[in-house]
Amino acid sequence: MDLAGLNRVSDVEWRIEPHGDMRVPAVIFGDESLIRDMDEKVREQICNVATLPGIVQAAYAMPDA
Description:
Number of strands: 4
Largest sheet: 4 strands, mixed
Radius of gyration: 11 Å
Low-confidence stretches: none
Order of helices and strands: EEEHHE
Mean pLDDT: 97
Structural class: alpha+beta
Number of domains: 1
Strand order of the largest sheet: 1-2-3-4
Number of helices: 2
Helix content: 10-25%
C-alpha cells in the first residue's frame, strides 16, 4: 500500500483522516513493512467501513488485513 494519505501515529499505528463520506477516521495497525505489503484494497475497504451509519470513534484494520 502507498503510504500517501496515511498519518503515522506510532511505530505500529497509522491513521487516515475522514474525507468524503467517511464519518470517522480509519486506523490501521502494522509496522511500515507490513503496511507497504498490504493491498491497496485494504485502504479502500477500511475507508468504506468508516462511512457506515452508526459507526462510532473509528474503523480499525489489523495487520492481517
